[in-house]
Design brief:
The protein is mainly α. The chain is 66% helix and 8% strand.
């Protein structure tokens, strides 16, 4: 039987995720926050004053990409960079008051969308879905690890 991507569960999942992101992106713009920026705000809410390198790792971005994003967020008044007290070559990233206010609004948007997404789910259905998604996540993490090892072996041969 030939694989029909249009009927694949992963295809449906990608469509659901795109719609989720579209709605988040539309609603957060009102607060001066743009696509890709919420994870940075959330990580800084958890631990303000992070070094850019560790923040890049936590939000799964290349340091150079994060640097550009931080620059934009700094210009819009959401963040500020300050030199590290112990190492002048390192800068730390902090939320401003405007950034904290925007983060609160973004969290509210995310909560509202989460509620809307699962409005017709009961608690058991949510629990089952969470378990299934975690299983998928684990399988894809394992596959990433296997593919990474395969890529490293190929590079060693070349």
């Amino acid at each position: 039987m030939e694989f029909d991507y249009s009927q694949a569960l992963t295809h449906l999942l990608s469509h659901v995720y795109r719609l989720y992101r579209l709605n988040v992106d539309l609603l957060i713009q009102e607060y001066g926050v743009y696509p890709g920026q919420p994870p940075v705000l959330m990580r800084l809410t958890e631990q303000d004053g992070q070094i850019q390198k560790e923040l890049a790792y936590k939000v799964n971005l290349q340091p150079a990409t994060l640097n550009v994003m931080i620059g934009r967020m700094e210009k819009s008044g959401l963040l500020e960079r300050r030199p590290d007290a112990g190492n002048y070559r390192v800068s730390r990233v902090y939320l401003t008051d405007k950034g904290r206010t925007a983060t609160t609004a973004v969290k509210s948007v995310l909560r509202d969308i989460e509620d809307r997404c699962f409005a017709r789910f009961n608690a058991d259905e949510k629990r089952v879905l969470r378990g299934l998604l975690l299983q998928m996540h684990d399988e894809l993490e394992q596959l990433k690890h296997e593919n990474s090892n395969l890529t490293n072996k190929r590079q060693d041969v070349e």
